Amino acid sequence: MRFREGTFDRSKTGILRPFCPAHAVASLPEINLDDLKAENLSLILLDVDHTLVKWKQEEFSPEVLAWVKKAKEMGFEMCILSNTRHPERLARLAAVLGIETFRGRFKPSTHMYEMALEKYGKKPEDAVMIGDQIMTDVFGANRAGIDAIWVQKMEGPEFAGTKINRVVERLVTSLLYRSLVIPLDTTSDPAPNTPFFERTIVKQFLKFCFVGGISFVIDSAVSYVLMFKIPLDGDLLSNRGGQYLLDHFPSLFRFANSPTGAFLPVATVIAASIAMINSYFLNRSFTFKIKSNENKGKQALRLYIVGYMGLFINLVVRTGLFTIIPGHPKRSWAIATVLSAVIVAMWNFVGQRYFAFRVHKSE
Asked: Which residues contact 290 (CB under 8 A, 6 or more apart)?
């Protein structure tokens, strides 16, 4: 989705309010410092990578250096809030800019924001956060009661964890853009007042849920049969197989408190792999309406990459819940299966829409 600049009406964002910035601007140097001063802001909090400088690089653009210099001259206090795992590089960058840095619990935790406010003796309404990530910079600022300005990511590679955030970010911002009340360029985007259920992404999500329901039935049925219906030597396959795993791979399956608990990940992998076949064919033709056979193989490969990453999430959540939920194994299995399915459904929709079946046309 193309980045769009403008001001957001956050009263229209509903449950997405915590993720909504006050403004979206193409780059840091385009932020008008006179406007910030007019809003009685006195503390500027800055992200580093892809906001001030490209990831892993240490050379600032002349425009960024000039903007920081002007901000200082205008009396703004400034500091950097960074999730970086390389404090030495961060210290070098801060030294060049001549501003302080704060490191603590990673954004979107409010910890670093609160540290900065306390250090400079400011209230949340005195500060503004500027960063390129909705899920960390903007979300964290909103949680701390601080307005955020979202800037477009600089060109270039980025950290693997950030790429995962970007996938979720695209889904969130596609919905947030409907509250963009002062867009600078709307030539290729829908009118902000497009009815919610007529938006492409909403239609696709509803279709995806329908397909997901079918896949969920397939997944659950196969898993249930493997866990509770297949006999083996006078016992259930899950008990026999799970005991084998506990006996031969005790360190790998030490999380399990029973043979069925040990066998559950095996049943989950088999069931999910079968359900993915249904997901691929129906989502390709029905949800995302891919008519061309071009790149069919690549799309299948990407879907299975997304699917197996979702499967890993499923394994962790389902197995963890099955282990800790008390009561009869069938009850624990049912609750764990439903809750993990909801979480994984969101992951799979975002991954399939923006990676497996890439949607290039604007919403």
From this structure: 284, 299, 357
